[in-house]
């Protein structure tokens, strides 16, 4: 009798331990694998908008890859609400990395790309950035409508 009771108690303890482990290690939630997404738009470059290349480059969009693998952005398009487009060259955005796409001219690096424009592209009051794959599928969008702020965290 006492032996049977002891076995039952041990079984219950083992079941409880199993439940505790299940609670400690729940199934990964959807989206835990991360994504490639627009993380920030700095739309009103610092100071007077004098169209200098430095000012144009003060305007930028950042795209982050929060997945654990590099993602090729070759042919991907970043567009504003008026459909001014920037098409990525052959380029892989590393795992956990962020790329900054500046409006003006400069030499591309692994962390910064340049649209090469001579005019601003991101409106200072309201606009919408859309990131599309080479085939046209929308990956992410980020809209803003606030002329009192200079940037938007997406
Ligand atoms: Ca602007
Ligand atoms: Ca400005």
From TrEMBL:
<dbReference type="InterPro" id="IPR001322">
    <property type="entry name" value="Lamin_tail_dom"/>
</dbReference>
<dbReference type="InterPro" id="IPR036415">
    <property type="entry name" value="Lamin_tail_dom_sf"/>
</dbReference>
<dbReference type="Pfam" id="PF00932">
    <property type="entry name" value="LTD"/>
</dbReference>
<keyword id="KW-0732">Signal</keyword>
<protein>
    <recommendedName>
        <fullName>LTD domain-containing protein</fullName>
    </recommendedName>
</protein>
<feature type="domain" description="LTD">
    <location>
        <begin position="24"/>
        <end position="146"/>
    </location>
</feature>
<feature type="signal peptide">
    <location>
        <begin position="1"/>
        <end position="32"/>
    </location>
</feature>
């Amino acid at each position: 009798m006492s032996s049977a009771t002891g076995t039952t108690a041990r079984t219950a303890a083992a079941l409880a331990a199993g439940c505790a482990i299940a609670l400690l290690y729940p199934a990964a939630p959807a989206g835990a694998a991360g994504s490639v997404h627009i993380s920030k738009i700095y739309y009103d470059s610092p100071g007077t908008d004098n169209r200098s290349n430095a000012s144009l480059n003060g305007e930028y969009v950042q795209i982050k890859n929060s997945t654990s693998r590099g993602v090729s952005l070759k042919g991907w398009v970043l567009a504003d609400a008026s459909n001014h487009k920037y098409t990525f060259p052959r380029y892989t955005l590393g795992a956990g990395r962020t790329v900054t796409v500046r409006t003006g001219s400069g030499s591309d690096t692994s962390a910064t790309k340049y649209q090469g424009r001579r005019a601003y592209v991101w409106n200072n009051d309201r606009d919408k950035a859309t990131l599309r794959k080479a085939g046209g599928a929308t990956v992410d969008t980020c809209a803003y409508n606030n002329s009192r702020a200079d940037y938007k965290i997406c």
